[in-house]
Amino acid sequence: MRRKLVVGNWKMHGSQELLRTLLTGLQANAAQGDFADAAVCPPAVYLAEAATLLADSAISLGAQNLSQHEQGAYTGEVSGSMLAELGCRYVIVGHSERRELFAETDELVADKFIAAQRAGLTPILCVGESLAQREAGQTLDFVAQQLNAVIAKAGIEAFSGAVLAYEPIWAIGTGMTASPEQAQEVHQHLRQVVAQHSAAVAAELQMLYGGSVNAANAAQLFAQQDIDGALVGGASLKLDDFSVICRAAQSSI
C-alpha cells in the first residue's frame, strides 16, 4: 500500500518568526503519532534554519526549486547538491508558477528533475492544466504530455524515486478546487500513462493533489483511490489547518 504524503509549499511567504512558530508547532503535533508523512518547503533563505529546527524530527524538509546545473556562473541559482547538503529531502519541480511566470519549458523541467535525483533529492514533479484547457476537453492529453516529456528524458525507472503532483492551474490560490471525482480522473489517467511504461512503477508511485486543498476538503480528496496525499499552498502556513490535513491523510490509509 502506498504511504500518504502531505507537502506544504510556502511559496514566497513567511518570516523567521513564522518559521519558528510553525515548525515548532508541527513537530509537537506530529509527535502525537497521527500524522501522515509530512514535509515543508519554505523559501530558500529559510532552509538552513528550518533544517536546524527540524533536526531529528518526523517532518521532512523540501525546497521549492533548483537549478538544472550542478555549479557554475549562474548568479542567483541554487544547485541540488547545495539543497541536499542543507538537509533537504524533497524539491518541487515544474510548478505551474515556474512554468508560467518564469517560462520553464517541459525540457527544462525534465533537466531539473534529473538534476534533483543526481543530487540525491526526491523530485515532486508538478503537472496541471489551465481553465481554458479544461473547458476545451484537453486536460488528460495535456498532463500526459507534461509527464511524458520527463519520462522520455529521465527514463521510467527514475519515477520509482519520485513523487508526482497534479495541480490544476485554475484551482491554485483561487479557492476553487477540483471535485474529488475530477481529481481522481486525472490521477487515474496519470497512473495509466506511467503504467504504459512500467506497471510496477505505476503501482508504487505517490501522486499528490494540489489546488486549494484545505482542512474542509482534504478527507474527501484522500478517499480517492489514486490520490496519495496533497501539495498544500496557503493552508500550509496555518498550523491548525495543515495539521488537520496531515491527520486526514493518515486516517485515510
Provide keyphrases for this structure:
alpha/beta, 11 helices, 253 residues, 8 strands, globular, isomerase, TIM Barrel, eight-stranded parallel sheet
Reading the helices and strands in chain order gives EHEHEHEHHEHHEHHEHEH
How many strands, which pairing sense, and closed or not: the largest β-sheet? 8 strands, parallel
**Structural Rg:** 17 Å
Strand proportion, as a percent range, falls in: 5-15%
What number is the mean pLDDT? Answer: 96
Q: What is the general shape?
A: globular
Question: Count the helices. How many?
Answer: 11
**How helical, in percent, are the residues?**
40-55%
CATH topology tier name? TIM Barrel
CATH domain class name: Alpha Beta
Describe this structure in words.
The chain is an alpha/beta fold. It has one domain (5-251): Aldolase class I (TIM Barrel), CATH 3.20.20.70. It is built from eleven helices and eight strands. It has helices spanning 16-30, 47-53, 80-86, 96-101, 106-118, 131-135, 139-154, 180-195, 199-204, 218-222, 239-251; strands at residues 5-9, 37-41, 59-63, 90-93, 122-127, 163-166, 206-209, 229-232. It has an eight-stranded parallel sheet with strand order 7-6-5-4-3-2-1-8. Helix 2 (47-53) links the parallel strand 2 (37-41) and strand 3. Helix 5 crosses helix 7 and helix 7 (139-154) packs parallel to helix 8.
